[in-house]
Structures are given as structure tokens and as C-alpha cells.
Amino acid sequence: MQRRDSRSTPVFLIAVFCLSLAALSACGETADSPENGNAAPPLTAATLGEQIVLTPAEWLASEPYVSADPAAGKKTAGVCLACHSLTEGGPNMIGPNLHGFFASPVGNVAGYSYSNALSSAGFVWTPRALDAWLAEPAQFLPGNRMTYPGVPNADDRANLIAYLLAETGAE
Length: 171
Known about the structure:
By secondary structure, the protein is an all-alpha fold. About 40% of the residues lie in helices and about 0% in strands.
């Protein structure tokens, strides 16, 4: 019977750990991946930080929107149209008219009565902000009045945002 030197055990365990991490990385998983329950916290209005503001046409020429499917986004937007109009001069409904809202400060559509949460939020509508909003509106900005539960799939959100960029004011 061979006897193992107990001093080599830590080196062996470290080697196994490193190989395990390398294998996970090769599979696209890391110690911080959502598959391991260690996802980064969701983006909120409070954690947006400084935003990049571009025109809708500039956003549409960049990823992920240049590769998105606006036709699929139009189908998803059907739910939005129950509460929002998208056309220039369209009415405010249960929600505000969304025409021209990209690159504008939140809570600025004339004639629409916003919740206190939106009135005081202080961010600009960018695709990044809208993506986080659409993922789960109540989590993105607690206290807002939008009762929509959100669009959980990132590709569906990109398609929807590409459609809204084109439909509400792309140059």
C-alpha cells in the first residue's frame, strides 16, 4: 500500500480547483455566471450611472439592434400599444405617447401625469435604460405605475427596442 505525503494534498486540491475553473470557462460558465447563481445585480434607475446618448439611427446601426429583428419586435410591441401610442402627435393613453422618447429625460411628455417615481427618476431614455426597464419595470424603478411584468428574454427585448427606435423617431 502506497502512502501519500500529506504535504502534497493542498497542491493537488489547488490544481483540481484551477482545472475545474478552466473547464467551466471553456463551457461559457464562470464562477460569476447566472448558471451558478452569482449573476450581477440587475440594472436599476439608481444604478444606471452616466449614459451614452445617441440618435435612434445611431443606435440602430450598433449591436445588438443592427442584428435584431424589428418585425418580431413589432409583434411584441402589440402589448405596448394597449397603453401607449407611438406616432407623432398621438394621444397619451394609460401611458404616455412614446414618439420621440429616446434621448429625452424620463417623465417629460407634455400633458401626461407621471408617478412620483418617474417624475423624480432623473435618467434619460436610452436603449440601455429601456432594456433594463422592460426586463422588469417594478424592479428597475420601484414605485412606478406601470403594471406590465416585463419581457424576460434579452433577444425579445432587443427586437422590441429595435422596432421602437425605428417607429418612434429614427432619422
